[in-house]
Specification:
Elements: E1 9-13, H1 19-22, H2 25-33, E2 37-42, H3 48-57, E3 61-64, H4 74-91, E4 95-99, H5 101-114, E5 118-123, H6 127-130, H7 136-153, E6 159-161, H8 164-172, E7 182-184, E8 205-209, H9 218-231, E9 236-240, H10 252-261, E10 265-268, H11 274-279, E11 282-285, H12 295-302, E12 307-310, E13 325-328, H13 333-344, H14 348-366, H15 368-379
Parallel strand pairs: 1-2, 1-4, 2-3, 4-5, 5-6, 6-7, 8-9, 8-11, 9-10, 11-12, 12-13
Length: about 375
């Protein structure tokens, strides 16, 4: 550990307990290794007990905090703010690292209220409110969320983005009042030890992994699968991911209909995902959601999969078009089907070359150690 780094008490706050391991585990370990006292907090959901046990084995304390994920109820949100404020008062951290919307917004407000806390929000995607779409409900929600971000980010020491589109949007909207405090990293990173290279199978298998939210492009994936199967009937289309309470969530009944007609094979919420990635030849994420940098794509790239994703914020950062995959327009099932058929018709050596390009991009940009080195430099932790 560098002599210039003074040990601190650091609180890392997330919106889902399992994300502390899956998305922030390497960062938590690095902070602990550098001599800091590390506390991790998230809602007491169904995975919290096992997450707490794992964190304890790393020498990191887990503290449950009540957050109403997916709720726009102002009473519940006030309760979330108060819960984070109580947490800060109890832990008394020197620094707070928060990610996802409510931990960022209410964490920032609570840190300002308590005082004496360096605040580092990580903008890991803007989600439903900022996704382009018609409807008064979404427009009103966007205005509310923008106001909350302004308040939550007001006293942040640095605001950490995962893609240049979100960074530019926040600066344009004035949600970050000082561009000098705005910085960018390459997503959350991916651990190449946990997601090693796998040989490409001979079978023509596409895989999509995502929460079952319309804005992730799930319906476009299913419609593209229907179209491709007309010309290439032996092609398989796998879909993995859990149902979601998001306003744009897809129902179990709709998924059951897709399976019954034979359009896709639904695998459910698969953990761990490595074995499923090994089964696929191509990975697809047709999202028009405001992704930070989609972790599912990085994991697929780390295993050496060619990628099809959308030319949308966050997603476009993962693909060099024509080299490690293909970019398609958002909300365009025909364009997605065309890209799938294009890959199906390419010789194996071309697909292998795309696989190698994915592996190279992960090594150069998205390796979790590189990303965390950058984060520790930004935060001086």
């Amino acid at each position: 550990m560098s002599n210039t780094i003074e040990p601190e008490r650091i609180l890392v706050l997330g919106g889902v307990s399992l994300s502390l391991l899956n998305f922030r585990g390497p960062l938590l370990k690095r902070l602990k290794l550098r001599g800091h006292e590390v506390v991790a907090a998230a809602p007491p959901d169904e995975n919290a007990a096992s997450v707490a046990d794992t964190l304890e084995s790393w020498g990191i304390r887990f503290m449950p905090v009540s957050l109403s994920r997916g709720s726009a109820n102002p009473i519940r949100d006030w309760s979330s703010f108060c819960a984070i404020k109580r947490l800060l008062a109890e832990v008394r951290p020197n620094s707070l690292i928060a990610y996802t919307v409510k931990p960022v917004v209410y964490g920032g407000m609570a840190a300002r209220s308590v005082g004496g806390v360096r605040f580092f929000p990580m903008i890991t995607g803007l989600g439903y409110a900022f996704t382009e779409g018609a409807g008064l409900k979404r427009a009103l929600l966007r205005q509310v969320v923008m106001g909350l971000y302004r308040r939550g980010l007001k006293d942040a020491e640095k605001v950490i983005f995962q893609n240049p589109d979100d960074q530019a949007l926040f600066e344009q909207l004035g949600l970050v009042n000082d561009p000098q405090r705005s910085v960018r990293v390459y997503g959350s990173g991916v651990d190449r030890v946990d997601f090693p290279e796998h040989p490409l199978p001979d079978d023509q298998v596409f895989l999509m992994v995502a929460r079952l939210v319309a804005d992730k492009g799930v319906r476009e994936y299913v419609e593209a699968a229907r179209q491709v199967r007309e010309r290439f009937p032996n092609t398989r289309f796998l879909l993995a991911g859990g149902l979601d309470p998001n306003p744009a969530g897809i129902s179990q009944a709709e998924v059951d209909e897709w399976v019954a007609e034979g359009a896709i094979e639904y695998l459910g919420a698969v953990q761990p995902i490595q074995s499923v990635l090994a089964q696929c030849r191509y990975f697809v994420l047709p999202s028009y959601y405001r992704e930070g940098t989609p972790r599912s794509v990085l994991e697929a790239m780390s295993t050496g999969r060619p990628i099809i994703t959308t030319d949308a914020p966050g997603c476009r950062e993962t693909v060099k078009h024509g080299r490690n995959g293909l970019l398609v327009p958002p909300r365009d099932s025909r364009g997605l089907a065309d890209a799938m058929e294009s890959l199906l018709q390419r010789p194996r050596d071309v697909i292998v070359s795309m696989s190698e390009e994915s592996l190279g991009l992960v090594r150069e940009r998205f390796d979790v150690d590189r990303v965390n080195d950058h984060l520790l430099s930004i935060t001086n932790l």
